[in-house]
Amino acid sequence: MTRADYSSLSPSDAQVALRSYPRRFAALLGEPETEITESRAQQLGPEGVSALELAVDSIRTWTLLGRALHQIELAESPVLHPAVADPGLRHWDQPIREDISSVNEQIADGANELADAIGSVSSDRWNRTGITAGGGSITAIAIVQEAVQVGAENLRRIERTLAALG
């Protein structure tokens, strides 16, 4: 799957996008009104992942990226986990045990915390760079753009997954 280009996304646009994600994820996942809703959200789709797993991937990725943003803001050339810059290295070993309600709350908390963190970064720090373990680098603004991209991609994937399940 080709990734969309978010390289021109500004910090303020990223904040707006992140603050929209709780509503958008909740609209797709729904509220846990019945066992059928929970079961559908946990059912594997054609990609081999469930809608709930995709939502939790967003939460976990935002946590990773938020920490990296904090490190870049505070330290000169910090060493970051390689998964910050490489989505292919983001593998979560912990199984998902949350229900829709819990995931929706975590989406809201994670998206709003990251949006708040973006708001606290001064404009002269957006081009600061972190070094990824094993080589490579990433700027503070690229981390923010990646956070928005992950949310948007996972929303599309959830939509496709739920549509495929009928």
Give an account of the 3D structure.
Helix content is 59%, strand content 5%. The protein is mostly helical and 166 residues long. It contains five helices and three strands; from the N terminus they run αααβαββα. A three-stranded mixed β-sheet has the order 1-2-3.
Radius of gyration: 16 Å
Give the spatial strand order of the biggest sheet: 1-2-3
The count of DSSP E runs of length 2 or more, i.e. the number of strands, is 3
Our count of helices gives 5
Order of helices and strands: HHHEHEEH
Report mean pLDDT, rounded to a whole number.
92
Instruction: List unreliable stretches of 5+ residues.
Output: none
> What profile does the largest beta sheet have?
3 strands, mixed
Shape: elongated
Helix share bin: 55-70%
> How would you classify the helix and strand content by structural class?
mainly alpha
Q: How big a fraction of the residues is strand?
A: 5-15%
Distance between the termini: 22 Å
Per-chain topology:
Layout lengths: L10 H19 L5 H8 L8 H24 L4 E2 L19 H21 L8 E4 L4 E3 H26 L1
Parallel strand pairs: 1-2
Antiparallel strand pairs: 2-3
How do you describe this structure in short?
By secondary structure, this protein is mostly helical.
Comma- or semicolon-separated keywords:
single chain; 3 strands; 3-stranded mixed sheet; mainly alpha; 166 residues; elongated
